[in-house]
Amino acid sequence: MKKFMTVKEAVKCTLPVLAGYLVLGAGFGLIMNANGYGIWWALSMSIFIYAGSMQYAGAGMMAGGASLISVALTTLMVNARHLFYGISMTDKYRGSGIAKPYLMFSLTDETYSIVCQGEKSSSFYLAVSLLDQLYWIAGTAIGSLLGDHLPFSTEGMDFALTALFITVFTDQWLGSKRHFPAVSGVTLSLLCLIIFGKDNFLIPSMLSITAALLISGFAGGEVKRDE
Amino acid sequence: MNDSQAVAAIAVMTVITAALRIFPFLIFRGGRTPAVVTYLGRVLPYSIMGMLVVYCLRDTNIHQPGSYVPYIISCAVVVLSYIWKRNSLLSIVGGTACYMILVQAVF
């Protein structure tokens, strides 16, 4: 019964991801299809790589015949933000046992936005992670199989993921007295987006945000030497 | 790319992505997490969600109002409805519906 409740809660929390991943996954399947890579190519990427924006970039690079070096560098640039997620989940995922390798592997933006909220059980984290990847794989399969024959226009439905991030952001804002971390996250990323452009702004954003947080943490005495 | 090059490309993307996700866990897997990491773990989620919101904005073009006006209106719908009802699903469905109508029928 407890397990059932955990899964039920996980389904409820991941509904926005379901909407977003079905659409974005289908979009990925479509692009792969258009580039001459069939369903098995698309599915293996969604199973093994499992990183939305990188898979889109990868589809383009595979079609364009990019070198392995540039594939590697692009992956580093696009996915470096995942380093952040690990740092803030080390304590929460401690003691998650045999589920831990999968929990680490499957920490996407969207999964992170759900598991970073509050303290939950390992089985909840696992259910969220598995469901999210399932949605992504299902979307990929639908896109690969349907091609351009979708019965209605899904244009704009991927906004569900943006909306998910915004509700989490708003919720954290309303539940916190100190807004420095949130404000520095937004302003430094915006600044870096303007300065470095959309393809290169994530790494400078991460570095400047970390620096700002560390300075404020040490200056304000929030980092305790013997915590 | 021929098939074996494509397989190699997928392998490279898989290994690097997984490494980036697992790396922090490997460094801090000892008995006690350093105080700095505990502190970052506490404050980073706030900054990261801010960064992700900006990340979603990256494809908008300041010279094309059609690329950001629907976005700004829908974001406002999400934030205001969330402050009002505190129901994330409601805000996400409402904001997404608003965005879809705007990009499909208005802009």
Number of strands of chain B: 0
Order of helices and strands of chain B: HHHH
Number of helices in the DSSP assignment of chain B: 4
The structure class of chain B reads: mainly alpha
Beta content of chain B: under 5%
What is the mean predicted local confidence, pLDDT of chain A? 89
Gap between N and C termini of chain A: 37 Å
Shape of chain B: flat
User: What's the domain count of chain A?
Assistant: 2
Q: Mind summarizing the main beta sheet of chain A? A: none
How would you spell out the order of helices and strands of chain A? HHHHHHHHHHH
Uncertain stretches of 5 or more adjacent residues of chain B: none
DSSP helix fraction of chain B: over 70%
Briefly note the structural class of the backbone of chain A: mainly alpha
Rg of chain A (CA only): 19 Å
What is the mean pLDDT of chain B? Answer: 90
Description:
- The complex is a heterodimer of chains A (227) and B (107).
- Helices cover 73% and strands 0% of the residues of chain A.
- The two termini of chain A are 37 Å apart.
- In chain A, α7 (109-115) packs antiparallel against α8 (122-146).
- The radius of gyration of chain A is 19 Å and the shape is globular.
- Chain A has helices at 2-34, 39-48, 52-64, 68-79, 82-89, 100-105, 109-115, 122-146, 159-174, 180-196, 202-219.
- Chain B has a domain at 61-107.
- Chain B has helices at residues 3-27, 35-56, 65-85, 88-106.
- The mean pLDDT of chain B is 90.
- At the A-B interface, α1, α2, α3, α4 and α5 of A face α1, α2, α3 and α4 of B.
